[in-house]
Amino acid sequence: MSKPIVATASLAGCFGCHMSILDIDERILTLIDLVEFNKSPIDDIKTFSKTCDIGLIEGGCCNSENVENLRDFRKHCKILISVGECAIMGGLPALRNGIPVKDCFAEAYLNGPTVDPAGGIIPNDPELPIILDRVYPLHEIVKIDAFLPGCPPSAELIWKALTALIEGKPLELTYDLVKFD
Amino acid sequence: MSKIKFSVDGRECFGKPGQTILEAARDNGVYIPSLCRYEGLKPTGSCRICTVRVGGRYMAACTQPLSEGITVENTAPDLEDMRRAMIEMLFVGGNHMCPTCEKSGNCELQALAYRYQMLVPRFPYQFPLRTIDPTGPKLLVDHNRCIKCHRCVAMVKTKDGKSVFGPLYRSKRKKIGADLTLAAGLTDDQAKKAMDHCPVGAILKKEIGFAVPIGRRTYDKAPIGSDVETPRT
């Protein structure tokens, strides 16, 4: 049997969850034996070249590019997993939820204390993705099959979830694994 | 003193007259989860996390007096799922961002979510627009995290018995307000107690935070209620 294929992405996240994946330490060598990585910042593959078995996504959706990326992952991954607080509920970026985007932009680019007193400009290059009205959890945009909470989820949780999936065994959630911080 | 005989999930228990179901169960090593209840305070039964089933009827174990021969259901799967749903509703109804909260690790709402292994709430997040009131000299009140349990209203009082906190408005608009003049008169010790009485991170004592490292906080190692529970014999 060929190795399961894994893809990962960071949307509106801080890459902390990817750091937590690397925190499995020397087990990463075992992981490389167990799975093949496709689109992921870990191997720097930018586009999907085949259908993947497992997709790990950190970060919520704050702009149109995030949504496009997420839909691409849903299309190419059999099992899609929300990794971390931001993917599950928006996390830190979601602190802006409830505040009109216009006010956020004005604070960041026009009125903020660090803005050039000569006057700022709200970025408007057509190349930039459109900012959404609020930050959305992943499962409000596409179907998500599993959730790994934490900020970041511990390396132990990520390792146990991945190995359970690969071996086709149920994931045993002990008390120390489910933490939100 | 006379004993009242009752059972919880088939386990034979004995309680004292005047006790509530929750108190009597606790004395018998059975944990019934609760959130708005605080030891030493008159229970209000407002959060309903402690809902149990007695003779097919649902009741709040923290307010219901014990009576002879009752059969209490506490861990039936449908009851546990209902409690989990209530915890999830509290999470989506406010802005509970655990990674940014000083109370994380010592928060009773979070501890209940850990106990019930909430991975994601089944309800959509509401992201209500709420404010933070940092104007008091000793305390910071973050309405994003308030679950309106009224514990602070009943417990945080000045020397002459005046409540520092009180409810404002009703229904969805309801919030807990603080009397700034009274809050300014609190001692450091009273401010610390106010923070400890809050089950979540809505009341924080200023100037000191994150004092206890991760791993040594109240609910880092053992689930909430594990101090009450004794294994079935």
What does this structure look like?
The complex is a heterodimer of chains A (181) and B (233). By secondary structure, chain A is α/β, with parallel strands linked by helices. Chain A has a single domain (5-95, 132-167), classed as 3-Layer(aba) Sandwich (Rossmann fold), CATH 3.40.50. In chain A, 31% of the residues lie in helices and 19% in strands. Chain A is built from six helices and seven strands. Chain A has helices spanning 16-22, 27-34, 64-76, 85-89, 101-111, 155-167, and strands at 5-10, 36-37, 52-58, 61-63, 77-83, 131-136, 146-148. In chain A, the strands form two sheets. In chain A, strands 2-1-3-5-7 form a five-stranded parallel sheet, sandwiched between helices. In chain A, strands 4-6 form a two-stranded antiparallel ribbon. The longest helix of chain A is centred in the middle third of the chain and has 13 residues, at 64-76. The termini of chain A are far apart. In chain A, 36% of the residues are buried. Chain B contains six helices and ten strands; from the N terminus they run ββαβββααββαββααβ. Chain B has two domains: 4-74, Roll (Ubiquitin-like (UB roll)), CATH 3.10.20.740; 84-205, Alpha-Beta Plaits (2-Layer Sandwich), CATH 3.30.70. Chain B starts with a strand and ends in a 28-residue tail after the last strand. Chain B has 233 residues and is of the alpha+beta class. Chain B has a five-stranded mixed sheet, with helices on one face. A three-stranded antiparallel sheet of chain B has the order 6-7-10. In chain B, strand 8 (165-168) and strand 9 (175-178) form a beta hairpin. Chains A and B meet through helix 4 and strand 7 of A and helix 3 of B.
